[in-house]
Design brief:
It holds the Pfam family Mab-21_C. Enhances Ca(2+)-mediated inhibition of inositol 1,4,5-triphosphate receptor (ITPR) Ca(2+) release. The chain is α+β, with helices and mostly antiparallel strands. The chain is built from 17 helices and ten strands. Helix 5 crosses helix 17 and helix 11 packs across helix 16.
Amino acid sequence: MPLGIFRVCLVVITAIVNHPLLFPKENGTVPENSKEIIQKMKEREESLRLEKLRLEREIAEQETTQKALEKAAEVVEESKEEKGCWDMWTALSMVIFLLIELWRQDFQEGNWQDTGGEEDDMAVLGKAFKGVMFPDKAVLATFCEKRILGTTGDMARMREMVEGFADDLLEALRSVCNRDADMEVEDCMGVGSMYENWRVRKPFVCDLIVPFAPPEPYCFRSQTWCSGDSFPPDKQGYGTIEVCRADEDVTGCICDKTKLGEDMLCLLHSQTNTTKPTSEMEDLLCFKNSQYLDADQVMKWFQIAVTKAWNRISHKYEFDLFFSLLDSPGALKIKFRSGKSISFNLTPVVQYENSDVYFISHFPRSSLGGDIPSSTHWFVTFAVYERRFIQLVSKMLPANACHVSCLQILSFLHGKQCSLTGPSGLTNYHLKTVLLHLLQARASQDWAPENLEARLQDMLKYLEKCLHEKKLYHFFIGNGKVPAELGFPIIFQRAEPLNLFRPFVLCREVYRKTVDTFHEMLRNMSALINEYMVHIP
């Protein structure tokens, strides 16, 4: 308590001592500086007033800006609502357009077989025919009779000679092969233009296919691109061939699909007869470390077997036999002592199930082809069914029908044009495919001999349409109207149509070259025919 009173007294004394009025002489500057203090206070008051005005203006401006932003937000909101309505109508229009486009494509794919039979559709086409002088009926008929039909006898004699020699060669091949280890070779079959009687250009080349099978107890199990397995787009039209033991029933036994356990065994399949990738599989012409048949291995085996067979029978013939193309296993040439020669192709194939569809080891590739497929992918050929279809349709056509003549003239013109301007993406197989479509689409009486000019124009216009659309569908694949008499496998009829012109979409340079060659052929058509008519005696 006394300490607190002492502190209070100390504070009071200090205040009294420091009061300015007690020492006026020491603090005489206070009255003199009062005016300066008042002036500073006024200046401070003025600055505060100006600051207040500035703040009031800023608040007013912020309120104005806020109101403008609110109005802009309202306008944006209204525009969003309007844009939302517009976007809804735009999206609805796009959906309707896409549905119409999909329906149009489905309709075209569903009716692609019938396009060739509509005269109105043909009338719309033919833009490239403007200004083209088309040969008349008399010139075309004379050209066919003198220039083309005269080669029929030569083709018949050549076919007979080649078939006889091929049978003898294959018989010798069977004798030199080991039946317990080598492939079993069957009889050959003739396919292609020489056996469909529309080959025009020389030299004539016979195409023979030779089916072969593995030795017992092995067999081939094949898979195609349309069998349900995933094949890339560039492998459409190909398949794979697996070498298996004949006693392995993949679909019937579940031992490979379930785990039986260590103390359980399958009575049908033991561990000793399970096919594994070994050197034995390589002896069966399989790809290394796999069970898939290798086309390159087949090529080597076939060339060696043909060489051994020829060495056994060469003493019976007065000519020489040798391989004409190194990259084709069966491209053979017979050379006589007189200097003349005959070329033919003897190509090994594998049969697809119990049909006449075959996997061909090496197929002639045109400039349309892209990357060469792997050696385990085999091209699927329908050459036997194509020959049968032409024979079947020919029986229902009028006498001396003009269908073969149309194909011969078109093949002749295209070949001559390519010899002048260089090769194009079109092949004779494309031309034959066009004919097959038109044979199915048109009535039998339309192919009477007097309609040669009209049908040739139809083929050219149909080909022009396909080039314009970059679509030429394979005749058999995806065609549900194949005659039942052919016994064609249903799996290929139900498959998606295969576009033979798909490479045109991928390679624009080849497409441009092909179109230019086609148009040039149309312009030179009359000149080419008249030129070769002059040389006819």
